[in-house]
Write a structure and sequence with these properties.
Chain lengths: ~300, ~250, ~240, ~250, ~240
């Protein structure tokens, strides 16, 4: 990428859009701790609800810094929007939660009824990819039905309407806690991250990251610099100050502090340079491309997509 | 105005809409609004590839099934409520509540009763259609001409004749537009319920297209649903509209 | 037999009837005269059971009652034939049979074949009246309640239909309660003429009569009738 | 039936609904359907804590603003379309399309034009309300009595008098139920748009409650929205209903 | 001046008028007689510009035209006073002034104060007619088109209103085109009597007349009139 000479003008009125995903707390901490105050004074933060919301923010130029599942910026880049991936902040947060004591491994899922969410979207694709690798045909060997959101799947589990569901965080933690209050025993039977590791090397899935619009990098190299220096300490603070982090999440992301805090162990936050784990990211992208090329807009993103942290 | 002129003007209106769309596309770019031509091309591919048929069948079943059930229930309750004032007064706020409760509240119930796949989209449609048709039928009954009712009583007309010869023709004046509105809602709500629900039908395909951030594909599916709605309106309601007031 | 016994009725602005009595026997045509707004239409509605008296009793022991309203009251979406056949439909007569019967009646009332299929909005005022009259007579009623039925008809049609009514009374023994403003019409048709006062309606003149078709006799009788102080007071003076 | 009796019967209807809810709760348990009493208690807490007020103000602005704008536009177009048959024929399919297109198709547009918080929920409401009111106004114009129109022409009545003394009173017969239906939809759609949108208003609170898997809280917010809808219906439409046909 | 010049009109089932001519001058009351369905109402609608002729010309050069329809055509949601004031509202008269004027007229027509606020459904047939007549005369028209306006009125009211019409013709010089079925009414009122044939309507009798209020003279003239072969053929025979 061509970078213009550094300008002395800070970016004003930046709206940071966070993915509705617990790992976003890293970027929130960075903002709240004043890490971006110099480069982007008055930056505001808001969760986006769906990709339409995100797309409108990006196209209008209101938002140029986001956290997001990493297939989204790749897809947008392939559609001609110059998006760049700076860092991975979540190494996966999917698990199979069940009340069925007979389920311990993927193989045990055969013949069971399972509730999934976001059909054909990333969580579903990850599950299907792993299932294939485990020798299970998700369309034939298991009875997979879908609901609209993880909240509904969690609700069904808690209410006893379903025995097994694929869940993300924090709904998985929330479901287990709520069921516990009524004496129903739910547990995380399978970590999809572990399962992934058996087939793709490391037991982690680079799922969510921080991405920017190229124009933001051009306008304010200082902001990029601030992100580079601030993200890792923000993560460290979150892991070290769990209670405060949960309060922060409650204030800015409307999470429930108790659930958030417990869920911290399971959503695998980390801060890793995109360029540094490009091979792992591409493994993930290829797995998705195999199953559903349209998810990424057909191809791998170009070289300039990956930024160094 | 005859049927041909009406059709021509209707086509002109739709053409105007297409022009507005094209203008929007030029002004805002493909990431916000893909070109109508591109969308139409995508739709053609969809149809030719055979993907459209099954999705369409599922959505049509959801929309029309829910519409039919909701319309029959709504019309029956509306007529009964119109003829029996206390019943009508009791039902009116209930239907407003049913109408005003956002679908998220129903989703829980629907999931529970019908499971994630099955009938929950149809149920959501029913719940939307029922109050609309109720209101139309209710108003149709209330607005009928008392002078004609007296005439029928003076001739000792049995209830069935009154219904057929007096009530229904006057009712249709209010019921038909309600049915048309409800039909349009039925398609929209069926699609939305599928988008938010188990991922079947046109709505499921839209959800997938959205997950792919593929706007042209999303709009192609929407276009298909709307085309079907217009076809349905023409096929189901126009004949009734033409026959309205033609009853003996 | 139709009997009003001490009927009282009030729409909220003073009584229309206050202990009003009336009786109509089979084979009799009773004409009701009275100023506009005195309660003639209301008495027919009471007889037909369309309003209930506040107190008193209305008893209609006739088997089959039909009514010709002051306005035509036709179904706007049905054609002339179906409208004329409505009473027959109420009796359960099949569609073909009732349309045939109604069509015959209307043709007898001067309808051209093309007019039979017209809807009320395409009919002239007098044609609408005739449909309403056909609707009533199609059911061969024992009691006919008629509210100024011939007001919109030309002299020729009026005479024909007056004859039809007399015929029903004399040959079938029907009873008729006949509201009219036309004294000559009352004299021509009625076995008994009642003149009502202004509200609350009271019978101020109750005259037995002999129906006649002779114009000279009718005019003479009308002049005599209107010379009676009670009739004069109720019908002409303010 | 007088107003008091109507009110009593309406309350009875709502009580019936509450009983059905309680029965559902007993049959299904609190995890599927919380008790009405628990929900009401949650709602009371919400109101007393002062959280309800601001959310409610946002949603009310979205719902009523969108309803007002959509109703005015829809009524104007419906009346114009009813009076000018070619315009009506051209607008009818366009409004069906507008009605039948699921919001996903224009949510991007709305977000782009109006921003995530601002007016996009109101715009979604407008787009839903417009076709409903259009249909009502259109039908109201078409169903008017031609005999009265002739009378007015014979007396050379100016357009404004015709509108006031003839058209509006006949129109209300169809327009009022359409406005009532549209109002109910306005609340529902505003809440839904907020759930899917920027997280403000009652819808935003519902989204949060759902994320917390807190059903009682979700239903408490829904109840608040519905209560407001009923209050609105009583406050805005009942007076018009009473005055209808009372115009000189 | 109102002029029909070679007017042709067809509703799709044969011509109602075929090159029909007619002229009404100021200060003249022209009565139209003819059998039911012959085209009398249609001729008034042509005069009022409510239908256009298929060919030929209708010219109405009067400044202010008012019409009394065959049916009352009242606004169901407005009370008697507002209905009678409708024509004044069309002229832009303020609400208070027009209601006062309409109320006076109706009171003159025999309305009790309580009746002024009634809606049409609460009025008797004759009361509705009177409201329609008041609506027309309230605007003090130069040309009044009247379609059997007094058919629903009792003898007394009819005479009063007949006098009102003659008064308008004689004192204000209004022109009146007056449709009636009642030959005595035509003789009582008209300066000229036209009898129309069955469809297509043609003038089969065109008689100058002298209005009179003397009952004996009216009855004699009516008998003479109906003895004319043209009138007899058009009005009485089939
Ligand atoms: N809109 C219409 N469509 C078709 N035919 C019509 C229409 N209006 C009137 N006609 C026909 O035109 C003829 C004349 O009708 P018109 O109302 O002028 O009669 P009229 O002389 O006023 O009769 P009446 O004394 O019964 O009121 C009738 O045969 C009628 O059926
Ligand atoms: N529904 C009603 N509400 C209030 N008043 C009514 C109602 N129906 C009739 N009236 C009043 O009752 C009286 C009698 O009315 P009715 O129609 O019986 O008169 P009528 O004798 O038939 O008069 P006309 O010769 O004018 O037809 C009138 O003063 C009328 O205003
Ligand atoms: Mg009467
Ligand atoms: Mg006529």
């Amino acid at each position: 990428a061509v970078t213009r000479p550094a300008s002395a003008h800070p970016v004003s009125g930046l709206e940071v859009l966070g993915a509705p995903n617990a790992s976003t707390v890293v970027l929130v901490r960075l903002i709240e701790s004043g890490g971006l105050a110099e480069a982007a004074p008055g930056a505001t933060f808001r969760l986006w609800r769906d990709t339409d919301d995100l797309r409108a923010g990006l196209v209008s130029g209101r938002s140029r810094l986001i956290t997001t599942p990493i297939h989204v910026p790749a897809n947008l880049a392939n559609r001609g929007l110059p998006m760049r991936l700076l860092a991975i902040i979540s190494m996966g947060h999917l698990s199979v939660v069940t009340a069925d004591p007979s389920i311990a491994t993927f193989a045990d899922l055969a013949g069971k009824k399972i509730v999934g969410f976001f059909k054909n979207d990333m969580p579903d694709l990850v599950f299907r990819t792993i299932a294939r690798k485990e020798g299970i045909d998700p369309d034939r060997d298991i009875e997979l039905t879908y609901v609209g959101t993880p909240m509904e799947a969690a609700q069904m589990l808690v209410a006893g309407q379903a025995e097994t569901a694929i869940l993300n965080e924090p709904p998985a933690t929330g479901a287990i806690m709520m069921a516990g209050q009524t004496g129903r025993a739910l547990r995380r039977a399978i970590s999809l991250q572990q399962a992934w590791g058996r087939h793709f090397g490391k037991p982690r899935i680079p799922m969510a990251g921080v991405a920017l619009h190229q124009s933001l990098i051009d306008d304010s190299p200082e902001l990029l610099a601030a992100l580079r220096t601030g993200l890792a300490p923000a993560k460290d603070w979150v892991l070290a100050n769990r209670t405060e982090a949960a309060q922060l999440a409650e204030r800015t992301m409307q999470s429930r502090p108790a659930v958030f805090e417990r869920s911290l162990d399971h959503f695998n936050i980390d801060v890793v340079s995109a360029a540094a784990i490009r091979p792992e990211i591409e493994t993930f992208y290829r797995a998705i491309l195999d199953l559903s090329p349209a998810t990424l807009g057909g191809t791998l993103p170009p070289d300039e997509f990956y930024l160094d942290l | 105005m005859n049927a041909a002129a009406r059709l021509a003007w209707g086509a002109a209106g739709l053409a105007g809409l297409a022009v507005a769309w094209e203008a929007g596309h030029r002004a805002l770019g493909p990431l916000v609004l893909p070109a109508p031509a591109e969308t139409a091309a995508t739709l053609t591919t969809l149809i030719l590839s055979g993907k459209a048929g099954p999705a369409l069948a599922v959505t049509a079943a959801d929309a029309l099934g829910g519409w039919l059930a909701g319309a029959m229930l709504g019309a029956a309750l509306g007529i009964a409520g119109g003829l029996l004032p206390p019943l009508g007064a009791a039902l009116r706020p209930v239907t407003i509540v049913i109408l005003g409760v956002p679908p998220i509240a129903w989703v829980v119930l629907a999931l529970l009763w019908f499971g994630p796949a099955g009938l929950s989209a149809g149920f959501t449609v029913l719940v939307t259609v029922l109050p609309i048709v109720f209101a139309g039928a209710f108003q149709g009954i209330l607005a009928r001409d008392p002078a004609l009712g007296e005439m029928a009583r003076a001739f000792g007309a049995p209830p069935l004749l009154k219904l057929r010869a007096l009530i229904v023709p006057q009712l249709l004046d209010h019921l038909l537009p309600a049915l048309a509105t409800a039909l349009a809602f039925a398609w929209k709500v069926a699609v939305m319920a599928e988008v938010l629900g188990g991922g079947t039908g046109i709505g499921g395909e839209i959800a997938t297209a959205r997950a792919h951030l593929d706007l042209a594909m999303t709009l192609a599916w929407v276009m298909l649903a709307v085309a079907l709605l217009l076809a349905c309106d023409a096929a189901l309601l126009s004949p009734v509209r033409r026959r309205a007031r033609g009853v003996a | 037999m139709l009997v009003f016994d001490g009927v009282t009725l009030d729409f909220g602005d003073g009584p229309v009837f206050d202990r009003f009595d009336l009786a109509v026997a089979p084979g009799r045509l009773v004409a009701l005269l009275g100023r506009s707004g005195c309660g003639k239409t209301t008495s027919l509605r009471l007889a037909a059971g369309l309003v209930a008296p506040a107190s008193g009793r209305v008893e209609n022991r006739f088997r089959r009652t039909a009514m010709v309203f002051q306005e035509p009251r036709l179904l706007p979406w049905a054609d002339a034939t179906d409208n004329a056949a409505f009473g027959l439909a109420a009796l359960g007569v099949g569609r073909e049979a009732r349309r045939a019967r109604a069509g015959d009646l209307l043709t007898g009332f001067g309808f051209a074949p093309a007019d039979l299929g017209k809807r009320p909005a395409e009919l002239s005022g007098g044609m609408q009246s005739r449909v309403a009259i056909a609707r009533a007579f199609a059911v061969e009623p024992d009691l006919v309640l008629m509210d100024e039925p011939f007001a919109a008809l030309d002299v020729g049609l009026r005479r024909e239909l007056q004859d039809l009514v007399r015929d029903a009374v004399e040959r079938r023994g029907s009873a008729v309660l006949f509201v009219t403003h036309d004294v000559t019409e009352a004299i021509r048709l009625a076995d008994r003429i009642l003149v009502l006062s202004a509200r609350p309606a009271r019978v101020v003149l109750d005259a037995e009569a002999t129906p006649t078709a002779d114009p000279a006799a009718i005019h003479a009788a009308a002049a005599t009738f209107l010379a009676l102080p009670a009739a004069r007071g109720a019908l002409l003076e303010r």
